[in-house]
Amino acid sequence: GMKTKQTILIAVMLFATSSCLTLADNASPSKESKPGWLKRAFGSLSWDEITPVVESPRDICWRVKSHVRVKAEVGDSWSSGKETWERGYGDCEDFAACVKELCAKKGFEADTLVFYAVKGKNRFVGHVVVAGKWEGKTWFSSNGSWGTADSLDEVKQRVASSMNWKPEDTRSAPLQEVTKQFGLSSGKQVAQNRASLNRRFGR
């Protein structure tokens, strides 16, 4: 009957989709070749395959947020963007690494910033985001999200709000400067050195 025909049709479509995805996986495309539309729409893209697909910082954020899930790490070790992508989960600095590294590969302006509280019950907490300029606007990404702001000061206020910090008690510093200055390797270490960070960067 009609139900049987529909079931057969659906089964054939699923088989065809599966076959196409398998063929696409076995094609061994070069790093810069774009995967077929079927795999882009329904398949799971590798780190090398994602680069030619993304076309803007916003697109990168959407892809990262869709592929990587938030998960707190024991010990809070930092991973590269590729490691995070392949693992499929991470916390704020891992999301930032994904977004920043994909932006760098595409030539988009992006900086990794460490935000941290200097007072209150959250003074041991740090948060890492990526921010940059795109088409004349300031954009930022927290855990893969996409947002725009009028300035980096507004980014700070919005990060503070999301973390339940007071804006006046919130400071920021470029991640590269933080790690270079203090030899830090984790978000916890960044937060615990907040007094030195405040003296050094004062923002």
List low-pLDDT spans. 7-31
Helix-residue proportion: 40-55%
Report how far apart the termini are.
Answer: 71 Å
E-strand count: 7
SS content category? alpha+beta
Elements, N to C (H/E) = HHHHEHEHEEEEHEHHH
Taken from the alpha-carbon principal axes, the silhouette is globular
> Strand order of the main beta sheet, please?
6-5-4-3-7
Task: Describe the overall structure.
α4 (57-67) packs across α6 (92-106). A 5-stranded antiparallel sheet has the order 6-5-4-3-7, with helices on both faces. Strands 1-2 form a two-stranded parallel ribbon. The radius of gyration is 21 Å and the shape is globular. Helices cover 50% and strands 16% of the residues. It has 10 helices and 7 strands. A hairpin with a 2-residue loop joins β4 (126-134) and β5. It is an alpha+beta fold and 203 residues long. The protein starts with a helix and ends with a helix.
Summary tags:
203 residues; alpha+beta; 5-stranded antiparallel β-sheet; 10 helices
Topology:
Blueprint (H helix, E strand, L loop, with lengths): L1 H25 L10 H6 L4 H4 L6 H11 L1 E2 L10 H7 L1 E2 L1 H15 L4 E7 L8 E9 L2 E5 L5 E3 L2 H11 L7 E5 H8 L4 H6 L1 H8 L2
Helix pairs in contact: 4-6, 5-6
